[in-house]
Amino acid sequence: MPGMTLYDKLVASHEVARIDDEHILLYVDLHIMNEYTSPQAFSGLAARGRAVLRPGQQMAVVDHIIPTHPVPSALRVIADEASSRQALNLKRNCDAQRIALFDTTDPLQGIEHVIAPEHGMILPGMVVLCGDSHTTTYGALGALGFGIGTSEVEHILATQTLVYRVARNMRIRVDGTLGAGVSAKDLVIYVVHRIGAQGARGHAVEYCGTAIDALSAEARMTLCNMTVEAGARAALIAPDATTDAYVTARAAQLHGDSLAQARDYWATLRTDDGARFDAEHVFDAADIAPFVTWGTSPDQAVPVTGHVPDPLAEPDQLARLALQKAIDYIGLAAGAPIAGVPVDRVFIGSCTNGRIEDLRVVADLARGRKVAAGVRAMVVPGSGAVRAQAEAEGLAALLIEAGFEWRQPGCSMCLAMNDDVLRPGERCASTTNRNFEGRQGRAGRTHLMSPAMAAAAALSGRIVDVRDWSHTQ
């Protein structure tokens, strides 16, 4: 009998009932909500006269619609009427149902996928769900996380379970050592580029290999966060000493016997020898360079030394038309080098790259330098805790001195749901996860890249190879 994959073990340990060959009733350890995917769910509960079954296993945060203007936390105000109403509705619902909320003026407010791990809410072996596709982030700590829809939010609030279609298994092995100037963001853009935007559709992806082992816990979060851009339903990394160190430093509820028992359990959370995967990919870390997207899908990417593809070289007519459409939107010429493309804006932040490690990289590059004339560069920490730590370490002062805007936490320019948006035609070097048409603002043009690459773009005014930084000044 074949062994079980890590994904299989997580699903089996949370199976409440088998519905049919493909579906189970899945128990949810933690459910996270934000202001825009929860209102209808609470309304549905009220219409049925039901209360939240387990309030202590819910957490809520205002993050997508909140402005990030650099004012004190206590003075943060959501001026847009519709957005303010969403935040007020969330607070009213959370107060009524006794659910913990990181509200607008909470000094620890931030992005849901940054807050939850940093407060020790995510432990290996958990099932964590949220009405946001980048819930895959939590796989970095050996937890099964994935996004859900509004009707499913209501079901979880009422029952603490989800009707779940079991995914297929995929393993992605990356061995070797990432080169200087190459980060987890480059790694995941490379993976999405290689397997395609639908390459992991219907699969839970488990990452392994020496290159993965060498990543920090925060870098693993970047990797798992953006794996959904390949269509993955989940992303996982087996817990190890790196996971243990990150979690135990934050999970104050674990100590003594409870910590010893947890560690014994975490040691079982790995794929068995002989377990079968439905699909496998193997990559060499040495082949990965700093990557930049050139189009309107995260898989439309090239190394920074590469060129915009020529649609005429594509034999498939539909693919050729899609390439041309993306090139027309992004405003570049087929065959043009991606390096040297001027940028108007730079956005450093999001649930992909708004953690303290990301900000340290940016501040190190900014030291003694200035943002290029004509470029507006924003740094938006992923949470109030990240912001406070960056200020305590002197990173914020370095960034401000270099000419970066130092903002309050929130999703910000990751998506056009607040007032941090691109104007039509503006070109942005962005550390976020999606470069869809209009994602950062109507007719805005987005190039995804790592924090180091985005910082270099801000300081030079154009897309450059951060590995050659000494030659760009």
Automatic annotation (TrEMBL):
Q: Where does [4Fe-4S] cluster bind?
A: 351, 411, 414
Q: Entry's SUPFAM superfamilies?
A: Aconitase iron-sulfur domain
Instruction: Tell me the InterPro entries matching this sequence.
Output: 3-IsopropMal_deHydase_lsu, Acnase/IPM_dHydase_lsu_aba_1/3, Acoase/IPM_deHydtase_lsu_aba, Aconitase_4Fe-4S_BS, Aconitase_4Fe-4S_dom, IPM_dehydratase_rel_enz, IPMI_cat
Tell me one GO molecular function of this protein: 3-isopropylmalate dehydratase activity
Name the source's superkingdom: Bacteria
The alphabetical list of record keywords is: 4Fe-4S, Amino-acid biosynthesis, Branched-chain amino acid biosynthesis, Iron, Iron-sulfur, Leucine biosynthesis, Lyase, Metal-binding
CDD domains for the chain: IPMI
Catalyzed reactions: (2R,3S)-3-isopropylmalate = (2S)-2-isopropylmalate
- Show where the Aconitase/3-isopropylmalate dehydratase large subunit alpha/beta/alpha domain sits: 9-461
Please state what class of enzyme this protein is: lyase
Q: Which GO terms describe its biological process?
A: L-leucine biosynthetic process
Q: What is its EC number?
A: 4.2.1.33
> Pathway, per Swiss-Prot/TrEMBL?
Amino-acid biosynthesis; L-leucine biosynthesis; L-leucine from 3-methyl-2-oxobutanoate: step 2/4
Q: Which cofactor does it need?
A: [4Fe-4S] cluster
Q: How is the cofactor bound?
A: Binds 1 [4Fe-4S] cluster per subunit.
Q: What does this protein do?
A: Catalyzes the isomerization between 2-isopropylmalate and 3-isopropylmalate, via the formation of 2-isopropylmaleate.
Cross-referenced NCBIfam families, in alphabetical order?
A: leuC, PRK05478.1, PRK12466.1
- Family listed: Belongs to the aconitase/IPM isomerase family. LeuC type 1 subfamily.
Q: How does it assemble?
A: Heterodimer of LeuC and LeuD.
What name is this protein filed under? 3-isopropylmalate dehydratase large subunit
Please tell me the species this chain comes from: Achromobacter piechaudii
Q: Which gene encodes it?
A: leuC1
